[in-house]
Write a structure and sequence with these properties.
The complex is a heterodimer.
Chain A: E1 10-13, E2 18-22, H1 28-44, E3 50-55, E4 59-64, H2 71-84, H3 88-91, E5 100-106, H4 115-122, H5 126-135, E6 138-143, E7 149-152, E8 167-170, E9 174-178, E10 181-184, E11 189-191, E12 194-198, E13 219-225, H6 227-232
Parallel strand pairs in A: 5-13
Antiparallel strand pairs in A: 1-2, 2-4, 3-4, 6-7, 6-13, 7-10, 8-11, 9-10, 9-12
Helix pairs in contact in A: 4-5
Chain B: E1 2-11, E2 14-18, H1 38-47, E3 56-60, E4 63-68, E5 72-78, E6 81-85, E7 88-90, E8 95-98, E9 104-108, E10 115-120, E11 123-124, E12 150-155, E13 183-188, H2 199-205, E14 207-210, E15 218-222, E16 236-237, E17 243-245, E18 252-255, E19 262-263, E20 267-271, H3 276-279, E21 287-292, H4 295-322, H5 331-338
Parallel strand pairs in B: 13-21
Antiparallel strand pairs in B: 1-4, 1-12, 2-3, 3-10, 4-9, 5-8, 5-10, 6-7, 6-9, 11-12, 13-20, 14-15, 14-21, 15-18, 16-19, 17-18, 17-20
The chains are: A alpha+beta, B alpha+beta.
Amino acid sequence: MTTAQYGAITVEPFGDSAAMVTIPHPHQSARRAGIIAFRDRFLAHRPHGVLDVVSGLESLLIEFDPLRIALEHVAYAARLVAQWAPSPAEDLPGARSVRTFAIPVVFDEETGPDLASVAEELGCTPTDVVEAIAQSTLTISLLGAAMAPMMGGLEVPRPLRRRAEPRTDVVPGSVMLAGTDAIIQPFPGPTGWRVVGRTPHTIVDISRPEPVSFAPGDVVRFVPVTPDAVAAREAGFLLPEKEPT
Amino acid sequence: MTTVALEITNSGWVTTFQDLGRRDSERRGVPTGGAADQHSATIANVLVGNARGAALLENLGGELALVPDADVLLAVTGAPAEVTVAGAPARPWSPLFVPAGQEVRVRADLARGMRTYLAVSGTFRAGTLLGSVAPDPRMGFGQLLAEGQRMLVDTQFRGFRRGFEPPLFRLPVPVPHFGEGAWTVDVLASHGTDTIAGIRELLEESSYLVTPRSDHVGLRLEGPVRHPEGDTEIVSQGVPIGALQIPHADELIVLGRYRSLTAGYPIVGVTSRACLPLLGQAGPGRQLRFRWIDRETSLRHCAQRDAEVGALERAVVEAFGARGFEAPLSTTNREAILT
């Protein structure tokens, strides 16, 4: 059995029906990895009356029914989980194991209108940017709006800025960057993130009982492909790489 | 069990299927969504013997009209509204018997509230996304109802054993007050309240105006605000429904049931759970005032609300039982309610 490697947690009330959990660790990577580990464990040992959780990059919002559980009990349960609960991946039967994804992406001027400005900001060429993205091993930290996978671990020399003027209508499948994070746009919509490429895969399919195939903690690599290669075959719903049997 | 078709003869501005929202979906990036005024939606269902979270209709603006092809029991709640059945005035916030082929019309007084709810005894056949009929337009799940559309309801209602005279029943219905003037919203301080000097006093002393740019993601309010000093780091985080957020612009946003993660904007308070239904009825032009309350007071208000709904549930079961109509409340449900 493993004990939590992230140490203490902070639990603060947030309104009358929610509590915010953060990890007071000096290193960002420890805070981010820790909160994912905490989230998995907390959900595996979910107290009665806890309705849902919302993952932030470095926080977890616990939503509860205050008529069924008191804030003090939520906080107590969270601290117990942080201190004692085993990692679900290792110790719980039927726990979900980490999946890996190799996602084909077309990086060009049409699919990635911000590629040139990102290169300019980093003082390199667009080819170098694509190279850096392809070299990065990213980990899904949370599912953002409309189940968009938000992932950290982009290996760029410094964090990227958001667009000063948000784009109003970004097409589905767009691969976007901000800070050292990447996200894929599942549905048409606005964004302040920098659009650098596009995958032909369907990221979220609401006609499926399980609209997405990924979850926080999963590992993603982006694989540059040419538009011709994309046109040659039907991409379809995004699925993980075959796991070795 | 019979299946009744209800034809929409007028859809008003926006009418959708609705319920109390998705469960366990926020951890997957999908907001819970659901009825903006959860209290009115709950009461509409309870009044027709449905479970609190059953599917129903939510109307925003214009006049909603529909005709059932068999006798149905329905209820209209929400904003103060003019309701007619076969042209005769009928009571909102009450079970209504609608004979086959007769038209129900609902027109809300938009100056008093934004949304009305119409529940029908039984189960609407409607598509779901992650277990809920609540719309999520952002994910391409609109649930919009159009004129001429026929909705199907599976119902066990076949009229009452004895005759009826209006009003059908006298029930202890908790009808909220939708006043003409400014509405008071109770808020709790949060860890962001003290990051902006003087914001507590400012919010309490000022009046805020709901602007037309408001939607189900948030109410955007015009009124005095203050900003934190210096640049705060942008780290996306989850926030509760009803959170008061101050963006870079000079406005105050009260986040609604379709909010997503927020990117580092200060949250200066959180609306009391008991006041959220009121916010769901606040339309453009409405004046809002904020009042700070502590957690204990807020929870007392919640418990009071819940007890009122429970009392209504028990009264409905007894009243319906006396009229020989026990369905569709299941036996277990009935026992749970009566004990």
